[in-house]
Design brief:
globular; 28% helix; 160 residues; two-stranded antiparallel ribbon; 7-stranded mixed β-sheet; alpha+beta
Length: 160
C-alpha cells in the first residue's frame, strides 16, 4: 500500500505534540534566531497502511512557505517524499514563490534528502545554532549525528 497524506486534524493534536517532543525534545524549534511552536503550525500527516507514519509542519509568511519540521517515522517507504510533495503543492496553492527550511550542519541524511528533492542550499547561518542554544533553547545538543558538533543552520529552498 502507498503513502497517503492528509492535513493535520483536531484529533491529531496529542499525537502531533508527542511526535514533536520525541523528535525535537520539545514542540519548540529554534531557527533564524527565534523559537517556533511547531505544534501550533499547520501540517500534514502521512499514513502507511492506515497508521500515522510521518509529520510535516509549516507556516506561510506572505509569499514564502516555511517547512518548519519534517519527520518520517517509517523510513524508505516514501513518507518524507510524500510530505515534501504535499508541502510543495500547498505552497503553490497559497501563491508562494518559494519553499524554505532550516536544518543543522550535522543532519547529513536531511541534507542529502532535500537536495535529491530539488531544494538548493541557499545560506549558511554560521554559528546560529550556537547562538540559539545560548539565547533560546539550551536543550539543543552540542553534538549530533556521527559525532558532528551542531553549530550552524543550513537554509534550503526551492523556488516555485
Amino acid at each position: 500500500m502507498g503513502v497517503g497524506v492528509r492535513p493535520v486534524g483536531a484529533d491529531d493534536a496529542a499525537w502531533v505534540r508527542e511526535t514533536l517532543e520525541r523528535t525535537w525534545g520539545s514542540v519548540q524549534v529554534a531557527r533564524r534566531g527565534e523559537l517556533v511552536d511547531a505544534s501550533r503550525c499547520a501540517g500534514f500527516v502521512a499514513e502507511v497502511d492506515g497508521e500515522r507514519a510521518g509529520l510535516a509542519t509549516f507556516a506561510v509568511h506572505g509569499d514564502e512557505f516555511e517547512l518548519a519540521t519534517l519527520h518520517a517515522l517509517v523510513e524508505n517507504r516514501g513518507v518524507g517524499s510524500a510530505l515534501v510533495d504535499a508541502c510543495l503543492a500547498a505552497a503553490r496553492d497559497a501563491g508562494c514563490r518559494r519553499l524554505w527550511l532550516i536544518t543543522t550542519n550535522d543532519n547529513t541524511p536531511a541534507i542529502r534528502f532535500y537536495q535529491r528533492r530539488g531544494l538548493d542550499l541557499r545560506a549558511l547561518h554560521h554559528d546560529a545554532v550556537t547562538a540559539a542554544r545560548r539565547e533560546l533553547k539550551p536543550a539543543i545538543p552540542l553534538v549530533g549525528r556521527d559525532g558532528i558538533p551542531i553549530r550552524h543552520e543550513l537554509e534550503f529552498e526551492r523556488l516555485l
